[in-house]
UniProtKB/TrEMBL annotation:
<feature type="binding site">
    <location>
        <position position="43"/>
    </location>
    <ligand>
        <name>ATP</name>
    </ligand>
</feature>
<feature type="region of interest" description="Disordered">
    <location>
        <begin position="392"/>
        <end position="442"/>
    </location>
</feature>
<protein>
    <recommendedName>
        <fullName>non-specific serine/threonine protein kinase</fullName>
        <ecNumber>2.7.11.1</ecNumber>
    </recommendedName>
</protein>
<feature type="compositionally biased region" description="Pro residues">
    <location>
        <begin position="334"/>
        <end position="353"/>
    </location>
</feature>
<keyword id="KW-0067">ATP-binding</keyword>
<keyword id="KW-0547">Nucleotide-binding</keyword>
<feature type="compositionally biased region" description="Low complexity">
    <location>
        <begin position="311"/>
        <end position="333"/>
    </location>
</feature>
<dbReference type="Pfam" id="PF13517">
    <property type="entry name" value="FG-GAP_3"/>
</dbReference>
<dbReference type="Pfam" id="PF00069">
    <property type="entry name" value="Pkinase"/>
</dbReference>
<feature type="domain" description="Protein kinase">
    <location>
        <begin position="14"/>
        <end position="269"/>
    </location>
</feature>
<dbReference type="GO" id="GO:0004674">
    <property type="term" value="F:protein serine/threonine kinase activity"/>
</dbReference>
<feature type="compositionally biased region" description="Low complexity">
    <location>
        <begin position="292"/>
        <end position="302"/>
    </location>
</feature>
<keyword id="KW-0723">Serine/threonine-protein kinase</keyword>
<dbReference type="InterPro" id="IPR013517">
    <property type="entry name" value="FG-GAP"/>
</dbReference>
<feature type="region of interest" description="Disordered">
    <location>
        <begin position="278"/>
        <end position="360"/>
    </location>
</feature>
<keyword id="KW-1133">Transmembrane helix</keyword>
<keyword id="KW-0418">Kinase</keyword>
Length: 757
């Protein structure tokens, strides 16, 4: 009869020297390979499980999974097999222990080192996702460390519960993973994806910076908090760091980083920007568990989570810390400033019933019941593992290279779960909502970008809802207004900050935001475009990176719409997604936004029909890389095309983009009409007239300037250089604040940068 070996026994060529850890699924040993004399981590599957076909498949698949990757941050597999009825897996051995044990013994690393470790883990995930593997259990115990000359190297281990894209081993509905690091959709029984790994990475970053998981409590409490509690923020931390946490830990998988590679790049950009404290952050108190109304209408709530024991900081132990610390002059922040409100998920979650008239939080009790059903219906526990180390570290890791893998390693077309769905693991969908963002610094508020043609510079009027005007500082972000290029905004590299795309007939460049300024423009494409064209930005393929659509056909009596998809470092060659004979280029104004709520930006056109007035037509984006036949969504025969401009944004926070139309009311002022989308058409909801603004003397741009999930308007009076903020209320758009703009707004070449030119 097969039996688990012990210390002193041999298993094939491996002589066992000591036990490192044990759990219900098996045992991990340190062993020496005879003949070579090298130390290995030897995982052995429990005998009773080795007799079950499903567990045998899982165990052997771990070896295949790891063998597929040559990542410097994933352990190397030496061998695997069966000996005397016992299944084993031999991997490289790393003596440094796991991250949880290191923090417990040495305290927290400096913030810069913490982000370096997190970026290495993100790179490991990117490499795993690139070969079609989702880890499913990212947590401190599964990050092993080895001291290097200049940095601590991190290795992601224990892929024993990882699910191969081609596997159906989790079809039984078992929820694998550790509660404190489990994405909210996983508690609902949804399959693990690259996006759920990214959520766990965000939780890991919080642990590295604070010494605790973002939420605490029992299984149901944790499920409730992951689903409904605010995303935690670090008081006084750089805006880019809190923006990373908001994005990586977004409740909606579609709102997270488009790939683990993009998350790694975001972390490295935060380090490069500087401003991190030399010590540790002061974590805010744990939030209470949210309360929900019971079905009878009485108030009901879960008990608050128990307090978390504090983790000692570096320097509180006699032994010297083993984390290298980058020089920094920043002090540790103490008093928390007012925190921005995180944007809501842009689309209904699977718990939301069909229809858009119910707020997401009405399902709180339902969510808790669903979570409880999932937890109790899978055999009495969350997850299975080849080994449960119980905090002792399993030693199952290996050496690797000194540098993280390339940031784009998971974005080159081989993403896991690739399918036509925008919700697939490799293509989690739009970032912050149905329209390209204008948030240049990652604080959660869309900003106002102005090209000053006379001074040849680009200025940004930051949004600050804490101020009386709703505006913050005005800053110069570039010493160029980019000449004759058509400039549109969007997050083209997927890092969470709004960038600028500069389009010319034979050249498209991107001036990327680093959170403090726009970088020097870099060539992204050399498209073959005519001298006259129009351009708009939107995420047409739902990969989390905004793309460009070009309208051409001036003077030809026919139009063509070509789309250049972004891949994070460039735009692909534009491909024709639509073409129509008989349409007049000169009678079209364009935009891009997700008006039908499927996660992909659509091409929106306002035209001038032969019978007069205006009509708005939509070319819906399809999963195959084309547009559907255009359909009429709105028409108004009494409107004038010459004196109507449209803006796009989610006015009612339902996940679909709506249309805001500015109209010329002559001496009566500027009209602002709201056209709401129901996913298939637009319907006029209200219209207000601003008496002291004139249509031809007002510049406009739409964006969510206060981070509440609804689109606001910024109108700049060319006569007075005054910027006004308008938020939509029950009475239509209403002014909420204003400020002076120190720029030449009346120059013909001075524009507010939007999603279209």
């Amino acid at each position: 009869m097969a039996r688990i070996p012990g210390v002193g026994d041999s298993l094939g060529p491996y002589r066992i020297t000591r036990q490192l850890g044990a759990g219900g699924m098996g045992v991990v040993f340190e062993a020496v390979e005879e003949g070579l004399g090298r130390r290995v981590a030897l995982k052995v599957l429990a005998v009773q499980l080795a007799e079950e076909p499903e567990f045998r498949s899982r165990f052997l698949r771990e070896a295949t999974v790891l063998a597929r990757s040559d990542s410097p941050h994933i352990i190397q597999v030496y061998s695997h097999g069966e000996h005397d009825g016992v299944l084993y897996l031999a991997t490289q051995f790393v003596p440094g222990g796991d991250l949880a044990a290191r923090v417990a013994s040495d305290g927290l690393p400096p913030a810069d080192s913490a982000l370096d470790l997190a970026a290495q883990v993100a790179s490991a995930l990117a490499d795993a996702h690139a070969v079609g593997v989702v880890h499913r259990d990212v947590k401190p115990h599964n990050v092993l460390l080895r001291a290097g000359q200049d940095q601590v190297h991190a290795y992601l281990c224990d892929f024993g519960i990882a699910r191969d894209d081609e596997s159906s081993l989790t079809s039984s509905g078992v929820v694998a993973g550790t509660y404190a690091y489990l994405a909210p959709e996983r508690f609902r029984g949804e399959p693990a994806t690259a996006a759920s790994d990214i959520y766990a990475l965000g939780c890991l970053v919080w642990f590295l910076l604070t010494g605790r998981a973002p939420y605490d409590g029992g299984p149901v409490q944790l499920a409730t908090q992951h689903e409904f509690s605010p995303i935690p923020q670090l008081p006084g931390a750089p805006a880019q760091l809190n923006a990373f946490l908001r994005r990586a830990m977004a409740k909606d998988p579609a709102a997270r980083h488009p790939s683990a590679g993009a998350a790694a790049a975001h972390l490295r950009a935060i380090r490069a920007a500087g401003g991190l404290p030399s010590g540790q952050f002061v974590a805010p108190p744990q939030p209470p568990v949210p309360s929900y109304p019971s079905s009878a209408g009485s108030a009901g709530s879960y008990p608050p989570a128990p307090p978390t024991s504090p983790i000692p900081s570096v320097g509180s132990h006699p032994s010297a810390p083993s984390y290298p610390s980058a020089p920094s002059t920043a002090s540790v922040p103490q008093a928390p400033p007012p925190q921005p409100v995180p944007r809501p998920a842009p689309h209904p979650t699977p718990l939301m019933p069909p229809g858009r008239d119910e707020p997401r939080r009405r399902t709180g009790l339902v969510a808790a019941l669903v979570v409880l059903a999932v937890l109790l219906g899978v055999g009495g526990g969350v997850g299975w593992s080849l080994l449960r180390d119980d905090g002792k570290g399993d030693g199952s890791t290996g050496d690797g290279g000194d540098s993280p893998s390339a940031a784009g390693s998971a974005t080159g077309g081989s993403s896991p779960g690739s399918s036509d769905s925008p919700r697939s693991a490799g293509a989690p969908g739009p970032i912050d909502g149905p329209i390209a963002p204008a948030d240049v610094n990652g604080d959660g508020f869309d900003d106002t970008i102005l090209l000053d043609d006379l001074d040849d510079e680009t200025v940004v009027l930051l949004s600050d809802p804490r101020s009386q005007s709703g505006f913050g500082a005005q800053q110069r972000w570039s010493t160029s207004a980019y000449g004759d290029a058509l400039v549109v905004r969007g997050d083209f590299n997927g890092d969470g900050w709004a960038d600028l795309a500069l389009a010319e007939p034979g050249l498209v460049r991107v001036a990327a935001s680093n959170g403090a300024r726009f970088s020097k423009p870099v060539e992204w494409a050399t498209p073959d475009l005519p001298d006259e064209f129009r351009v708009t930005a939107g995420d047409f393929d739902a990969d989390g990176q905004d793309d460009l659509a070009f309208l051409t056909g001036a003077g030809t009596g026919a139009i063509s719409i070509e789309v250049a998809l972004a891949d994070g470092t460039g735009f692909r060659t534009p491909e024709s997604w639509a073409g129509i004979d008989g349409w007049t280029y000169e009678d079209m104004r364009i935009g891009a936004a997700d008006v039908d709520g499927d996660g992909r930006a659509d091409f929106v056109e306002m035209g001038q029909p032969p019978e007069g007035g205006i009509d708005i037509r939509v070319f819906a984006s399809l999963a195959g890389g084309t547009f559907d036949a255009n359909r009429g969504w709105f028409s108004a025969r009494d409107w004038s095309w010459n004196t109507t401009r449209i803006g796009l944004g989610d006015v009612d926070a339902d996940g679909d983009a709506d249309v805001v139309a500015l109209r010329d009311f002559g001496g009566d002022g500027l009209g602002v009409a709201t056209l709401l989308s129901d996913g298939t058409r637009l319907e006029e909801d209200d219209e207000v007239v601003i008496g002291d603004l004139a249509f031809d003397r007002t510049r406009s741009v739409a964006g969510d300037t206060d981070g509440d999930g609804t689109t606001d308007l910024v109108l700049v009076d060319r006569n007075t250089a005054e910027a006004r903020r308008y938020a939509r209320t029950s009475d239509g758009f209403t002014e909420t604040g204003s400020t002076s703009v120190d720029a030449h707004v009346d120059e013909d070449g001075s524009i507010l940068v939007g999603v279209s030119r």
